[in-house]
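Notes continue from the previous slide.

Worked example: a multi-chain complex. Inputs as given:
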Amino acid sequence: MAEFWASLPPALQDVLFALALIAPGLLAGALVLRGLRPLPLVGAMLRRFVWVNTLFVALIAVSVGLGVGLLAQERGLRQGSARAAEKFDLIVAAPGSEVTVMLASVYLQPSDMALVTGAQYAEIAGAEGVAFAAPIAFGDSYQGAPVVGTTVDFVSHLAGPLAEGRVFATAEEAVAGAYAPVDVGGSFTPAHGHGPGAEGGAHEGFAYAVTGRMAPTGSPWDRALLVPVEGVWAVHGLANGHAPDDSRIGPPFVPEMMPGTPAVLVHATELWGNYALKSRFTRNDLMAFFPGTVLAQLHGLMRDVRSAMSLMAVLTQVLVTLSVLIGLMIMVRLIARSLALLRAIGAPLRFVFAVVWAYSAALILSGAALGLALGWVAARGISAVVTARTDVLVTANLGWPEAHLVAGFISLTLFMALLPAWLAVRRPLLTDLRT
Amino acid sequence: MRACLLSLLLIAAAPAFAETHDHDDHVAEAEGLRVLHAWTPATAKGADALVYMEVENTSAAEALLTGGEADGQELELVGFSYGAAGEAWTVLPGLPIPAGADVDLEPKVLALRWSSVPMDLAPGAELEIEVEVGGQHLPAHVEIGEAGATAHSHAGHNH
């Protein structure tokens, strides 16, 4: 059975799982309503208590919407952060924390780091199977946007063809990220450091002219300003990686003239080459890692949190529905005389049972449907806020996990709705008629 | 009498032999190529098992790691990737291990994949495989860990 299930396409597995979740509730409904037509009466009850019903539906919708929105948002954030790291095949840095280096080089959260030396860089760049090795030198900023020193190869690798203009050709030129605060044709003087403590006048007299703009990447690099790494070294009064009479930019660098770089992005000529290079540069004086692996491990650690979130979402929904059903039980007492009249004029007990159950089911299904819509709106709204705050493009859409959550919720609560229906038919007929 | 003494000696020595055997189980070696600490998480029948290990090349020539064999079935060398679409393992044609170097096949990086295992791989049980490296077929003893294991039980030991 497990083998058969594993052989099915994932989409079919999702459909079948959703059907399996919702089937018990639908089956219960089919059994309760079989051969009866209680819907006209249910419609009348919905119209008669329109405000109470609206409140019940809203309560269910908010609880379902919260659960759905949270799940969709968590997945969107996970996918967005993974998408942002996709272009970073292999990072080589000085030994330290892989997480810190990943946050600094992929998500541009600067940190104090030891440098890869010129000799080490030359060894990496010259290794067999390396298509290019791009220094990633960060630390400066402009109006809050990180200024990162790198090479032309990195710009092309990260964002493909430029959306506008051309790539930098001298140490005083720059390429702007898609949403960086300088337009093509403009210029800027970098501040030393970043954040409120950045020293605005530290690099006075030096300016980069922006010659091009990258296409959006969905990563924090969209807000960055990319400059030749030689510019970063020169602006800090260091050697620029080349002989004094050599004004060109880009590799190869002269190891003795290269001040070092916090991280190096390595792109291999072949896929397998990345794994060989990782093994080669994992040693005492260097650290090589795949950002994708670190991210997958971090996301794996969050799996338990995700499960807890799903459970809490279901529990919240069930608790809200329970309180709605308790409200319905009280309401059944209020309409007890009407139900007793129904029985007195010959309606079978099963019909009264079906009316009360169908009334509850209508509230549950309306609340769940509205909750899905609310969850979608909430996920989109939160995504926009998270994208603005982190510069990681987060797009949260509803998927199968949310469908499974709602299907499970509907099934469970349709079963719970049998309780008020059962209590309604157990009421003493004569007492209710005299009330 | 002599037979009794010999039996007693054998019984007394058994734990020592067992200890040596346990440690040797973690290492397979031939012509300068060593496979250490092979392990896999517990896997249900029909699912794909990922086998991890350390491969050392102490020979004077580069050796190519290409895959392996288990229970008559092929073990593919696969590399991990992670992106917006989620986790993926891609089959690699081979991985060169330079002379004097070593390669770690580790979770979410590199592994030998045994597709659709024909039996349950239960925690605590053991598995015999062959690792194809440098033209050699190295027999390796695979420890089966818990389903969520992230390392061999002797990880960090220098055998």
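Summary box: Chain B touches chain A at residues 44-47, 79-84, 86-87, 90, 92-98, 101-104, 108-110, 116 (CB under 8 Å). The helical segments of chain B are 2-24.
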